[in-house]
Design goal:
- This protein is an alpha/beta fold.
- It has ten helices and 13 strands.
- The strands form three sheets. A six-stranded mixed sheet has the order 10-9-8-11-13-12, with helices on both faces. The protein has a five-stranded mixed β-barrel with strand order 1-2-3-5-4. A two-stranded antiparallel ribbon has the order 6-7.
- The longest helix has 16 residues.
- Bound molecules: guanosine-5'-diphosphate, magnesium ion and zinc ion.
- Zinc ion binds next to helix 9.
- This is Small ribosomal subunit biogenesis GTPase RsgA.
């Protein structure tokens, strides 16, 4: 039996890449359909083959994690692409991306694009925000103000993070995900906002997920999405996704403190003293509010 990782799923075929770098076209065994198991891009699998075009996916190995949008499994790194403008930099969106990454045990990396078209004042505001995220433990790549990004710079910044990893590029539509990947490897020729306009096809693109080989790693370039909802996140899980809130929360009077209205809350005190930034706390409260307002899916009648 051979092992490899699914790098593409299309029209009932699964394309499996081995450690040696060869790709095999396979079909899944009927047993998967019978058991309603869908192999995912990113899955490590066992397979057999007659030829490179005729293989059989035999077994899915245990998944470390999986995302629904995009449908990818075993992700090591989530690169969150945030533009300085067009669309505007937004900490509330950034925090949503961070929560979606953190809750799936994926390591986040924040990458800021479009620093070439921003005036210095706005750049410095974003730089201060980036410093805050670095201080609470996140890796942030913020290219210099006014700099037109070259392939070598991107490579220097990203290679050590990406090499040997399964990576998802995420971020709002228009943030510059495809542009960044094209700059790393022009052969990819991924469609960007500009190219889809010039082709006159509007925004209609096929949405199959594919892992592409870049900088020694495998990357999924996702179509942009701006609304992220959390349907199964609990309050306690949310706290774990905000490292500085979790850390300060150890000093709260109540162990079960959710840092909203409880007395002697160390988190609220830290916000007052500005060691936790106000926007982070606000973003936390917004998400907490969404969790509390969420209708229970499986709750019995009369239960809250
Ligand atoms: N000035 C500038 N424009 C960029 C940069 N990155 C992307 N863009 C532009 O932003 C638009 C959206 O980029 P695209 O890569 O399609 O974004 P995606 O939706 O995240 O894949 C395109 O018109 C790009 O040319 C950048 O670093 N600087
Ligand atoms: Mg794109
Ligand atoms: Zn508290």
């Amino acid at each position: 039996m051979h092992t490899g990782q699914i790098i593409k799923a299309l029209s009932g075929f699964y394309y499996i890449k081995t450690a040696g770098g060869k790709t095999y076209q396979t079909r899944a065994r009927g047993i998967f359909r019978k058991n309603k198991v869908t192999p995912l891009v990113g899955d490590y699998v066992e397979f057999s083959f007659e030829t490179e075009q005729e293989g059989r996916l035999e077994k899915i190995l245990e998944r470390k994690n999986s995302l629904i949008r995009p449908a990818v499994s075993n992700i090591d790194l989530g690169v969150i692409i945030m533009s300085t403008k067009n669309p505007d930099f937004s900490t509330s969106l950034l925090d949503r991306f961070l929560v979606s990454v953190e809750k799936n045990d994926i390591k986040p990396l924040i990458y800021v694009t479009k620093t070439d078209i921003i005036e210095e004042k706005k750049y410095n505001e974003i730089k201060t925000i980036c410093e805050y995220y670095r201080n609470i433990g996140y890796s942030v790549i913020l290219p210099a103000c006014g700099e037109t990004i070259k392939r070598e710079t991107i490579k220097d910044n990203l290679e050590s993070f990406i090499n040997g990893k399964t990576v998802v590029f995420m971020g709002q539509s228009g943030a510059g995900k495809s542009t960044l990947l094209n700059k790393i490897d022009a052969k990819l020729n991924l469609k960007t906002a500009e190219t889809s306009k010039s082709l006159g096809r509007g925004k209609h693109t096929t949405r199959h997920v594919e892992l592409i080989s870049v900088l020694g790693g495998l990357i999924a370039d996702t179509p942009g999405f701006s609304a992220i909802q959390f349907d199964d996140l609990t309050q306690q899980e949310l706290i774990l996704c905000f490292p500085e809130i979790w850390e300060n929360g150890k000093e709260c009077r109540f162990k079960s403190c959710i840092h909203l209205n409880e007395p002697n809350c160390a988190v609220k005190k830290a916000v007052e003293q500005e060691s936790i930034s106000e926007y982070r706390y606000k973003n936390y409260v917004t998400l907490l509010d969404e969790i509390q307002k969420r209708k229970p899916k499986y709750g019995k009648k009369g239960e809250k």
